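anyone seen this seq b4? input:
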Amino acid sequence: MMIRYESRSSRTLNLLALRRYAAREVTMENLEPTSFVLLLTVFAVLMAASAVLSQASERAGVPVVLLFLALGMLAGREGIGRLSFENYPFCFNLGTVALVLILFDGGFNTPLARLREGIKPAAMLATAGVVGTAVLVGLCARLFGFSWMESFLLGAIVSSTDAAAVFSVLRGSSLQLKKRVTIVLELESGLNDPVAVTLTIALTQSLLEHQTLRPAILMQIPLALIAGGAFGIAVGYAGRSLLSRTRLPAGGLYPVLTLALALIAFGPPALLHASGFLAVYIAAIVIGNGRMPYRGGIARVHDAIAWFCQVSMFLLLGLLITPSQLLKVAPAGLGVGLFLAFVARPLTVMVCLLPFRYPMREVLYIGWTGLRGAIPIILATYPVLAQITGAQELFNTVFFVVVVNTLVPGASVRWMTSWIGLGSDQPPPPHALLEIISTRVLRGVEVLSFSIGASVAVCGAAIGEMPLPDGSAVILLIRGDELIAPNGSIVLARDDHVYVVCRPEDESLLRLLFGQTEAG
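predicted toks r here
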């Protein structure tokens, strides 16, 4: 029975909608207004539960993205929520937008100095590493009864690490990892999606046409990367200039502008079959390393948007899953997932990093921390949309591969960091942060943040006795959970966090006294 506004009162509408929902007949397609409000409320409750339970998930050692996925399944057609959701096009489109915004947030927070350290090995992993992983996983999948083309399509879908999962583990927790390893993992996750997307589309098309993969299609990968990278650089510098010159009447408009730049960076390359994802990531790096007003506010808004995208995306992907169908592909899914985690990923990383002479412990760590997430699941919707034979089985198999390759490395990453000795000597960031919020680019002085180590010159010295250059001053001290107004008699201790105002030309001298800045 349909609900119509013109024939029933508002109260009757609500009662009937509740009855329909209780009868488990509500679907996500062609929703009526009242039913939509009910589903929106349910989705909001799920999002709130995801946020509240995220800390418990981190303490238990379970990657938080899996919590979002589990809650989506719990609300799905065979869970307690009984929400029927099979809108693959909507999920694919939402996932694309979510990835764009997550990549922009990751690139915006990537310092250019760290980019130079890890770009070559990360680029090798993002290209040859993706292809090598796809081939090895395809060989394994063939043993579980998939055809050759289906096997390599499965390998292509799960071949790339996931930016959302990697950023969540490396940035969203208190994990302190050596910077060189961190930047390689982050850059790889931001750069490797274009190759996986191109391979997935090419193999899906080959299955539709019942043809083998043509070498000419593979030649599109470097062209797509070059075109996407060039467009990303152009948008990045144009956006940096625009941000530094534009005077907006409200601080909240600056994140609106950067959000628009992220979408502009993605759109034209994607329409021209270039890599829109790479363009977004590179544009964000260029913009993030320039001077701009309201930087702190922009960073906070994009961080919140990225988390919102992750939660929404994994909840919706959880709704797509039908648990009863998973049992049929469990052996193949678990077998391929374990092979990817313990063989394909480590072996590929070892070969790709061989020319760079990385220490074996770093190679092992990078090979182990190959987190998968929503991107393979989103790519798995593409064969479903193309309606190729066996697409649903592939989709369900990918789910197992993703869970295994998020849970196994993700839950053990802290232990692995400690066991293999790659923890950073840097203390965790302070609980309180000082920033200057301005809608104009301020010039004349810089505000630097330092963490006081035992070996720096000022450790154990009184602030009044420090040989600070003219125009420099310690303006704030954070000691544990305490904010202290500095004066000349206060002695700096190990693990203190201090903020120093100085002229740009004096920054090198202050680094000699206080050590490296926390941002660097």
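The first strand starts at residue 446 and ends at 451. Residues 273 and 280 are 14 Å apart (CA to CA). kinda curious what u guys think
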